[in-house]
Sequence to fold (282 residues):
Amino acid sequence: MNNKPNLDVARAAYGNPDYKSGTQYLSWPGHPLDYSHAYVVSNENLRHTTGLTRDMGRRVLTVAGSGEQPLFYTINGAIQIDTFDISYCARAIMDIKTQAIRSGMPYEQYKKLLKDLHFAPSASKVSGVSEILPKIPAHSAQFVRGMDGYRIFGNGLNPEYYASEMISETEYKTLQKALRGAFKFIWSDVATLHTQLNGEYDVINLSNIFEWSPDLIQPTLTNLRNYVRPGGYILVQTGCGMAIGKNMDKFIDVQDALKDWAKIGINKQERDTQVIILERTR
Ligand SMILES: C[S@@+](CC[C@H](N)C(=O)[O-])C[C@H]1O[C@@H](n2cnc3c(N)ncnc32)[C@H](O)[C@@H]1O
Fold:
């Protein structure tokens, strides 16, 4: 994947700019693609998931998603946080949220920003965004402006629905002190992510990706072995109980194939949500 988004390709993928009529990106479930519309908040209990490795190292690689994953890892003390996602829209929402928080935006205004971004057909026209865009990475800002007319942050439900999963006011204040700048972003399918990595992380979080591609579980975990330190962790989770639950057997199956270097465990959360935790043993 080239590092710079291609606006013609992205607009063509969305098709009809009248988002109310639907596009290939506004149907669910669908396999995420290069410009899939992003979520503005997460439906997962990331407070719990990112807390699982709080004392286990500070170098984290995580899916960008709605930006909530790197933000919660920041709250939990990680210092070097790199992100990846198949969708460039995930990068854009992550950059906008990170800059909004760093800029000193009041918490209530931040919540309104997320709701407006979710519903707006043109993100750059949302109140507050014109001050944010000049301060985020240039390609990301150009992409947001260039996609006006397309609802690039329209995935999922009204963010107000996820009030308890959202960053709280206290966590928001922690972030305002801790955030240093934009997170590094690797635009990549998880299947080829290893080809773009250097060095070792303490924790790699693959979020809830494998519900779309369970056959990628074994090759992906194998490919990422050398990018997590011995004693480090690879996490996979789901937000609503149906996804990994459905593919749980796949993780059990790969346990045996990976047993020379990995131990796989399951952390159960409320609402049937589960986190698979792979530890690199050697
Ligand atoms: C279902 S979302 C939710 C993430 C999380 N709940 C959040 O909002 O922070 C998972 C993310 O994984 C990305 N994704 C899905 N399949 C992927 C793949 N094969 N490679 C890389 N990223 C992928 C999607 O684009 C999306 O941003």
Residues 1-43+87-179 form one domain. The pocket of S-adenosylmethionine is lined by residues 32, 36, 39, 42-44, 63, 65-66, 68-69, 85-87, 90, 189-190, 207-209, 212-213, 239 (CB under 6 Å).
